[in-house]
Amino acid sequence: MRRLLALLLILTLAAAGLWQLSRARSFQLFGAMVDRVETTQPLVALTFDDGPVPVQTEAILGILAGRSLRATFFVTGREAEANPMLTAALVAAGHDLGNHSYSHTRMVLVRPAFVERELARTDAAIRAAGYTGPIHFRPPYGKRLFVLPWVLAEQNRTTVMWDIEPDSDLNAGAERIARIAIEQARPGSIILLHAMASSRSATRAALPLIIDGLHARGFRLVTLSELLAATP
């Protein structure tokens, strides 16, 4: 009985450890990963996950265009395929496009072939929109463990995480979201926003406040490619 309890305890601790590893922002077992860039320059990257979808994405494009800013959009292949003109509009506006998988499935207990298909189909949709830059990858829900990092390393791709997620609290209002983003920002920060979801009206309302607040602190908002290029 004691041995059984000890085994169950070990398995429980192992599972908890693997769960923590799967969601770590600043560590993974294989390949290149970045959650922020070490730089002394006052640069910050705004990144948006999911989409593109009509209405919400167009609203974000309007806000960014009104302030002459470029950002980074981690798109899903399924939505990029469904909205090719909108995906092309992101490219035409000069924004970076990243791969956020095809189906937005948690890539923890998956096979290499599944990961490869998800990457390839999304890459194809991004390239079809006219994007020619490097396609970095952000795992759905930030989850990865063994297989996904290994496949990314084999393809010489960088996993992009984040160090600030101001809208992680679904009940937060626009002012609180903006305050978190502005106060936590530091040189090299990568800010994750979920403004393309229809339910995230508070995030969309916070976006102009975030931009203006970061500018007031002396930050320059750049694309992920520009931020990575600032690495010493």
TrEMBL record:
- Coiled coil ranges: none
List, for all copies, the residue spans of the domain called NodB homology.
42-222
Q: Name one Pfam family in it.
A: Polysacc_deac_1
| Similarity comment | Belongs to the polysaccharide deacetylase family.
Q: In UniProt terms, what function does this protein have?
A: Is involved in generating a small heat-stable compound (Nod), an acylated oligomer of N-acetylglucosamine, that stimulates mitosis in various plant protoplasts.
Put simply, this protein is called Chitooligosaccharide deacetylase
